[in-house]
């Protein structure tokens, strides 16, 4: 049985990403709303349903993690009030996102996840 994502852990990931990007930490409620929209909100309501897609085998764990990281990255930079020179290497955050999502490193599917 698939565990549920650790939303507080994912908010910590978004906060860590903000620090790596040099922007202000996100508002907790706004970050939670973004993450819930990506993971569980139905597509008919503007969400991505990434968690349901994962449990059905439509996407991989790495793809869900990468979706969250990319969306958080874009959201944080867009939310920043000043111009940002984005050159941050965020690969170190992959393990943090994996732990919050799966409680372990994401399972890589050979030929799919590289």
Describe this protein's structure.
The protein is mainly α and 114 residues long. The protein has one domain. It has five helices and no strands. The model has no long low-confidence stretch (mean pLDDT 91).
In short:
The chain is an all-alpha fold and 114 residues long. 54% of the residues lie in helices and 0% in strands. The mean pLDDT is 91.
Spell out the key features of this protein.
single chain; 114 residues; mainly alpha
Helices and strands in order:
Layout: H1 7-21, H2 28-39, H3 50-55, H4 61-79, H5 94-102
Helix pairs in contact: 1-2, 1-4, 1-5, 2-4, 4-5
The assembly state of the depicted protein chains is single chain
Radius of gyration: 14 Å
Total individual domains: 1
Which series of helices and strands comes N to C? HHHHH
Count of DSSP strands:
0
Largest sheet: none
Mean pLDDT, as a whole number?
91
The shape is globular
Q: How much helix is in the residues?
A: 40-55%
Structural class: mainly alpha
Unreliable sequence segments: none
The number of helices is: 5
**First CA to last CA: what distance?**
25 Å
**What amount of the residues lies in strands?**
under 5%
């Amino acid at each position: 049985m698939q565990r549920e994502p650790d939303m507080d852990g994912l908010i910590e990931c978004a906060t860590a990403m903000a620090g790596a990007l040099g922007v202000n930490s996100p508002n907790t409620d706004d970050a939670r709303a973004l993450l819930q929209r990506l993971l569980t909100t139905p597509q008919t309501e503007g969400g991505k349903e990434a968690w349901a897609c994962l449990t059905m085998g439509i996407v991989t764990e790495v793809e869900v993690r990468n979706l969250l990281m990319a969306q958080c990255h874009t959201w944080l930079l867009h939310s920043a009030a000043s111009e940002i020179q984005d050159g941050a290497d965020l690969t170190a955050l992959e393990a943090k996102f994996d732990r919050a999502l799966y409680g372990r490193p994401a399972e890589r599917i050979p030929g799919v996840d590289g």
